Amino acid sequence: MNNRQTGNSGEDIAAEFLVNNGYSLITRNYRYGKGEIDIIASDSDIIVFIEVKFRKTDEYGSPLLAITKNKQNQIRKVALAYLTENNITDTDCRFDVIGITLDKENNPVIEHIQNAF
To answer: How is residue 90 annotated by DSSP?
Structure first.
C-alpha cells in the first residue's frame, strides 16, 4: 500500500465515522493550489473542514502530532478558497482533526478533536 492508498484508507474510515456521528459529507479531497482539505462536512449548520491523519501504528506517537502550524495555515487558506468559490459568507465554520491508528488487531482507533485550531 503506497502513501496515497494509506491516506485514502484513513479518509474512508474517517468519513464513515463522521456519517455515523451525524455529519453530512459535502466533499472530499477539495484542492486549491497546492493545498487540500481531506473532508468538508456539515455538523448541523456548521461547515467543518477536517484534516485526517492515519498511521498503521502508534510507534511514532499520535498522528495528530503531524498537523503542524504550517499545515494549519495551509488548511485555512484552502478553506477560505472553498468559501469564496461557493459564495458562502454567513455560515459558522470550524476546523476538526481526526487521527487514526490501528491497534494490534488492525482495528482503527479514532481520535476526533472538534474545533482543533
So the answer is: S
| Maximum pairwise Cα distance, the chain | 45
| CB of 100 closer than 8 Å to CB of 63 | yes
Of 14, 13, 103, residue with least CA distance to 57: 103
| Exposure string over 32-51, b if 16+ CB within 10 A, otherwise e | beebebbbbbebeeebbbbb
Exposed / middle / buried, residue 31 (Cβ in 10 Å: 0-12, 13-18, 19+): exposed
Give the pLDDT of residue 61.
79
> Whole-model pTM above 0.85?
yes
23 C-beta neighbours (distance < 10 Å), count: 19
59: its cell numbers: 510507534
Judged against a pLDDT cut of 70, whether residue 116 lies above it is answered with yes
